[in-house]
Amino acid sequence: MNTRMRRTAVAVAAGAMAVSLAACGSAKEAGDKTKETGAAAGDAIKVGLLLPENQTARYEKFDKPLIEKTVKELTGGKGEVVYANAKQDATTQNSQVDTMITNKVNVLIVDAVDSKAIAGSVKKAKDAGIPVVAYDRLAEGPIDAYTSFDNEEVGKVQGKALLEALGDKAKDGQIVMMNGSVTDPNAKLFKQGAHSVLDGKVNIGKEYDTVEWKPENANTNMAGALSALGKDKVIGVYSANDGMAGGIITALKAAGLSPLPPVTGQDAELAGVQRIVAGEQFMSVYKPYAPEAEAAAKMAVALAKGEKVTGVTTSTVDSPTTKGVPSVLIPVVSLTKNNIKDTVIKDGVYTADEICTEKYAAACATLGLK
Question: What is the DSSP string of 259-308?
Answer without folding.
Answer: SPPPB---S--HHHHHHHHHTSS--EEE--HHHHHHHHHHHHHHHHTTPP
